Input
Amino acid sequence: MKITGYIQTYSFKARDKIIEAGMQFLKAAGLEALSSELFSCVDELIKNAVKANYKFLMIRDGIFDSIQNNNPGKKDSEIELEIGEIIKDQKKFDSLAAEIVKTEDVSAIVREILNQESKLLTIKNRAYKEGKPFTDEDKEKIASLRLITIIRNKIKERGIKIILKIQADKDFIYIEITNTAPILTGDLQRIYKKREEHQRYKDEGREHEFFIDNLDTSESGFGLGYAKIDVILANWGLDVNRAVTIISSINTTVMLTLPVEELRKKSGI
Output
């Protein structure tokens, strides 16, 4: 059994569809008792993917502008082809991205995009829950959120997506979240470092202090969400390094690998 879906807007409506799809697999495996915590993990990964895609778009636009400024006569189509080649070269992409991050406060822009997205989703989610169309006031508020509207249009133009895949066999349930953008090497290293730091706190018997000491999300919270996921998976008795796989190339994929029989035994099902 396998399900593939594309997430355009991570609204209550999208979340409900994801939960409905995921429950099919959990029921078949007899693991419904884990649903709440599992969907917390999936929720965290999707939100990370949304944030990463926005950051990538800002960097990509910065690279485009830089090439255009240095080559006034170059056609947009030629610049697009050049960027495509840059993205395939991780070292070059990291280097150019570092220059963009130096000259522009990318994290601040991403935070503002997420703030506007939050306001947009509040309106959409309320209309969805109430089963009503947007009011004139809602439409005015949505129209005022210009930045998120521009960004969403660019996301579509660039073909940037979030792909969710759920599949299972008799032994495992696999959940994959892919954002069709590369991750910066520094951001990937930050994720690993945060996970290692969390494990160290846990080994020292002061796991609760990790989250207190990491309240500052000025670095876009990279790694913190993964630590939250590690807490859940470890509480299920899983080896977090085997249960979570991060694959980074032109796309970035995170896979959760859930051993069915092991989870049945450890959860007392």
